[in-house]
Design goal:
alpha+beta; TIM Barrel; eleven-stranded antiparallel sheet; eight-stranded parallel beta barrel; 18% helix; globular
Length: 748
Amino acid sequence: MATKTLRNIRTAFLAACVGATALFSGCGGSVPLVNVNEADYILNDTYYASCKLSGTYGEDYNLVAQNSQYKLYMREADLAVVVENVETGAVMQSAISYDDGKSNKTWFGAMQSALVLTYINGSNDNKQADLVNDAVTKKIQYSDNGFKADVYWTKYQFGMTLEVALEENGLVAHVSDESIVEDNEKYMIGTISIYPYMGNSYLDTNEGYLFIPDGNGALIYLDNKEGRFATGFSSMIYGTDIGFKDSQVVSLLWDRYDMVTENEKVLAPVFGIAHTDDEIAYLAVVEDGAMRATIEAHPNGVSVDYNRAYAKFIERKLYTQPTSNNSTSGSLHLTESDRSHSDLRVRYLFLSGDEANYAGMAGAYRDYLIENGELVVGDTSYNTRVDFLGTDRESWLVGTTGVTMTTVDDVKEICTDLNSSGVSNIFSIYKGWQDGGIYNLPITSFDVEGDIGSKSSVKKLMEFMASAGNELYLYDDALTLNPDEATASFNVINQVNKRRYKISTYKDVYDEFMYLAPAKTYANLTKLISQMKKKSVTGLCVAGISNNIFAYNFGGNTYNRYDCAGTYEATLDKAYADMSLVLEQPFAYLWHDTKAFVDMPLYTSSYIVEDASVPFLSMVLHGVIPVYSEYVNFEANKQEFFLKMVETGTFPSFYITKASSSDLIYTNSSDIYSSQYDIYRDEIISYAQELGAICEKTEGSYIVSHDMNDNGVTVVGYDNGTKVYVNYSDSAKTVDGVTVEAMSYMVK
């Protein structure tokens, strides 16, 4: 056999099989490969001679379901599956299609098995159980659209039922909570991964990428990484669980400034893989179990030479329990007494042809959310976001004194000036309106800081804003408690180890904050909304609980992230029914409770493993609900940030004060280094003119394509035919006959 690339050999072989299709992994063993050079491989002809083709993927795989778009094959030995596009013959497979001979048996078991577990034995929580290396009993039942397999590990005496169903647009893999059994206290389930190698590829045998939900979205290309990375992307859906977060030493600049930027949170429970050469892709949606799961995406070279992405569900964790108030005196390693109780479900939305890319994934997710009522299409007409800071506090001889930055009358004056200057629609969030200033938390009643106005003046301001076509929302951090201003006893959470959770601010006035118990948040917000409604003040922006969930101990009881999220969702469901509600950077499970997405990240965490950033979330939400950027004031490269807003269809945000920001130097708002209206007035007007003009041509339209050209020009396509060309390079470029100047844009 002549030397060719692996992909070319596979194509030639399949073409010779006259109506039959063969999958390398299903032919009774591993593919023997001989490395020729970086790109080429020779396959042993005797391997193909051992294959018994019968119109399926070899003798090990059986066709178990089929619909108009896809076929589903399954291998009983390890429950591995193959999904084949009926029209094109392109496949996605859950097990590796060949073995390069480099992997030990543990890795090989993970690469073949439908279910890969870790179990806890004493203080060790990293032992693997799979369907290849362990003694497992299986009872398989077939149905019209898939199969159900009862699986039990006889040594460890735990098991579960895996259900797999082929649907019109993809595949659903499900483990019900009630099916999980643990019959031996010595071995307890730690994590469960379902089809961790679904859509895998070896080195660079496929063109394409892994999609990860870091920030707005990022890609990891399927090129040969040449072993450069020791780890891939691993991040918890919906942010870190502070209930298990160990304290850590922070390195501060001048013992005052924390110079490390936090990673972006995973805001949506999704990941994906695209094989662009085969024109097949999937977007995976973690439907159940997302509250306690991580997204794992590892390129080739990270432990093994296979690209893969999957969700890992956490059932139990080890944690550290201090044995005294002195942290140096010792601690115990304990296991959670009870595991998580939630179904585990991953839906794979398959895409083909021109839609087999990240833009197609975004469209599929948008359609999925709308169809399931998780997103409601609303008014997406253009607005400029102009937020205001009312008051903060600075230390005084005894206690603190107020620092007034923007009064109610100032807000009215500024908005009147902007309206008369052509900024016709203003979306505004008023922070620090409450009695005691922005960090007098929690807000338990509708009491307005006297230095900025009164309850009646806030009501009149809201009426004025509405009459002028503007919107005004009062800001409430519903999560945080300031122990210098409110009683912490019986109100705040402890971590799972029963230690009080505290947040250090490294600021002069208030040096420490805590988190309210979710039940207390519910009571406070319910009371606040009731009082606001009595005064006909109906606009509320809720922060804190919109993008944090955690396990916690309160009142002697331990609650998990599912409990926390359930309370927050019930709280915000009620608030949304009672008020005009917007949420600050909300997690996806709360998107149905907000009129707008506030503080959309336009970048990623810039992990070294990422090859490109993409505006996935912006593509999902554009044309559905308004999306507002993080504050323009604090961006170092404003020109690039402006172009990012053009590219993503995101509306701009400014944080404004009437007084000079230098007045804040001795407050907890000292990091607001530039905010005075007189400085930003012209910029606000200019942004409104340019971005508003683009919105007139794209309003209500979905983003359906997004192409990043090698010459630095990104082309964004809308379903109404509009195209936006954004040139990030330092020279003029021409694409599609459209010339775009350096660091500029063009709308066609």
